[in-house]
Amino acid sequence: MAHIERVDLNLLAPLAALLEERHVSHAAEVAGMSQPAMSRALQRLRDTLGDELLVRTPRGYRLTPRAERVQRQLRAVLPRLEGLFAPEEFDPAEAAEAFRVAGTDYARVFAPAVFQRVFRESPRSTLHFRTWHDAIHEDLDRGVVDLMFYARSEPVTALHTEHLFDDRFMCVLSADHPLAGRPEITLDEYLDATHVIVGTTDERQTAIEGRLEDFGTPRRAGLTVPYHSLAALSVLGTRLILTLPARLLAEQRPDPGIRILPAPEEIRPLHYQMAWHPRLDGDLGQRWLRDTIRAVTTELPEVAPDFRLTRRT
Q: Environment class of residue 47 by beta-carbon count within 10 Å: exposed (0-12), middle (13-18) or buried (19+)?
């Protein structure tokens, strides 16, 4: 870089014009400069390159051998430099991006619609949905994952985060559970029960455990499973209570052996978010993906008080 550091790169455009036009006035017109400014640029170029570049002859200016070599190199380099500094464009129909996202299986409430829209609008792109794990934030920092979905109550300060939608928690019990006949469950009854825990992080259902920490009484786990879908099959005929977001339950077939009740009001709604590393903030492909996710989640139906889904009007 020793040679580049001593060169004013603003001289590249005048140099190209001078070598092509071989005339100061014509080069000034092509480059949008005054003739005196072009004359000064020519003198600076001669000093920088240690060569006359243009030599006057009876038939006009002629290029020196050094100028001819420089001209050949410029014709190869300048289009690449123009492409390097030109504004980026992103056309999803032509793009072949590899998007890498991560989340728990809760994402099934919106992810299929995202997949469909991505492949409809960008058929050459690919999507890789990674399994959620305890070190997922490190994957984002190392660039292994581009975007993650999560429902933690506390923000991840090293990342850019954006709220997508909210959900309510419901309690799932076997129909013969002692609490199944109640219209609602109190916090004391809830904490006194034994639970199915969907262990998303450190075998904790962080969206709930974080809310219960304020009361100083953790839930008693009778069963810990890694997936929401597996948890939903685990309470029938037991004394366990499963707490799930309403969106996961709303489209399931009614089961006479299962009772669903609102979670205690102290367990506040789930705030679902997406997060990405700041280095991807301006990437056009990633911005398009985030816009696609926003569009899909904006169209999600609302959760009614009886936890059925109702379309927005």
A: exposed
Q: Which two tokens stand for residue 270?
A: 């789930």
**Does residue 277 contact residue 141 with C-beta atoms inside 8 Å?**
yes
Q: CATH number, domain at 35?
A: 1.10.10.10
Domain that holds residue 122: 98-148+279-310
Q: Is 271 helix (H, G, I), strand (E, B) or coil?
A: strand
| Residue-wise pLDDT tens digits, 116-156 | 999 999 999 999 999 888 888 889 988 999 999 988 655 56
Flag whether 157 is in a domain.
Answer: no
Residue 202: which region, alpha, beta or left (left: phi > 0; alpha: psi -120 to 50)? Answer: left
Q: Which two tokens stand for residue 55?
A: 């030599």
CB-based contact 146:137 (threshold 8 Å): no
Question: 0.90 exceeded by the pTM?
Answer: no
